[in-house]
Design a protein that fits this description.
heterodimer; A: mainly alpha; 13 helices; 0% strand; globular; B: extended
Chain lengths: 225, 128
């Protein structure tokens, strides 16, 4: 058995299996809470705990998946490029929304962490949480955060946005689809974008663009602060 | 061979990103630089997005899958996080709602400004 766990195939196979179940659950009971990624992570954790498998064994295969995050992030450029007409037409509102949103997220998280007296490591882990995962991970590790806590915070934030976006749109009486889309993408990245696509095509496209622009805005914030 | 070529090209773009992030005097994630490099290549027509189609569909369509190991890594920190769990959740909730509201306000204000400057209603930004 030791030889099986020692092989990188174990981590990859377990991840694929867990993700398949996550996708199935999301299809059977569609809701933002049945997020395939969230389900897959919980299943893998449960498996490792139940069978007492060390995390380092899982990571032999896991690190291969993590390696693919960089090319995936680079490919976000393709999705922004495909919507470039909407981007140029609404450049000012998109830039304003993403930069103001990124700054609000960054500094409100910092102040709230200070308020709750969280230590600097936890604060650094939470600050990039409204950006898309690969960018958030790199920002977190640059600033001495716990990368996996950042991933958890990013997913939680995304689910919050996806669950509450329709309610917030109603409560804030938002009639402009550009405003709704940018706000969803800025506050809750890819998981929110999936929800924004359900609200409308403009909302979805705007949310998708906002992921990339907010990422860049947050990187700039990280440099100056 | 198509997908192998596309992956090879993407890995090369990522290498350029890694190299640039070491050249810059301040920390910028290499993946963000790779994204900018690819965006410039697309805008300058140096590369056609359809030539990356297969890999784009796989990686962007299933992006969540590649995050699983990063999320599972939290296992190693569960003990240290237990005491602060409630505070961490509270920070996430409050900051997300604030970000959403601030972003909406900024887009609405900028859309109004843009309409005023352009003098005509712009498709996509006018309130409906």
């Amino acid at each position: 058995m030791k030889f099986v766990l020692d092989s990188p195939f174990f981590g990859v196979a377990l991840s694929v299996f867990a993700y398949k179940i996550g996708l199935l659950a999301a299809r059977k009971a569609p809701s933002p809470v049945t997020n395939p990624l969230l389900i897959a992570i919980l299943l893998v954790i449960a498996f490792l705990r139940v069978f007492d498998v060390p995390l380092s064994d899982y990571d032999k295969g896991g690190s291969l998946l993590t390696l693919m995050l960089s090319p995936a992030t680079a490919l976000l450029a393709v999705s922004v490029y495909n919507r470039r007409e909407l981007l140029w037409k609404n450049l000012l509102p998109i830039a304003a929304g993403c930069f103001v949103g990124a700054a609000t997220s960054w500094f409100s998280t910092l102040l709230l962490c200070r308020f709750f007296r969280l230590n600097p490591t936890l604060t650094a882990s939470l600050m990039p949480k409204s950006v898309t995962t690969p960018i958030a991970m790199e920002l977190s590790s640059h600033r001495g955060g716990i990368v996996s806590l950042t991933v958890a915070a990013v997913i939680f934030t995304g689910i919050l946005g996806a669950v509450f976006a329709p309610l917030l749109i109603k409560a804030l009486k938002i009639t402009n689809p550009v405003a709704a889309g940018v706000a969803i993408g800025t506050s809750s990245h890819g998981i929110g974008t999936a929800r924004a696509l359900e609200l409308g095509e403009t909302e979805g496209a705007m949310s998708g663009i906002a992921i990339g622009v907010t990422g860049i805005a947050t990187v700039l914030l990280a440099i100056i602060s | 061979m198509k997908v192998i070529t596309q992956c090879g090209f993407l890995f090369f773009v990522c290498l350029v990103g890694v190299h640039c992030s070491h050249l810059l005097p301040f920390p910028v994630p290499a993946s963000v630089l790779s994204m900018l490099v690819l965006f410039v290549l697309l805008l300058s027509r140096g590369i056609d997005p359809s030539s990356l189609k297969e890999t784009t569909d796989v990686l962007l369509g299933n992006m969540a899958f590649f995050f699983i190991p990063s999320g599972v890594g939290i296992l190693a920190h569960l003990e240290t996080l237990r005491d602060d769990a409630l505070a961490l959740l509270a920070v996430c909730c409050a900051a997300t709602f604030l970000t959403f509201a601030a972003s909406v306000a900024a887009v609405t204000a900028a859309a109004r400004l843009q309409q005023k400057i352009c003098g005509k209603s712009m498709k996509g930004v006018e309130p409906q």
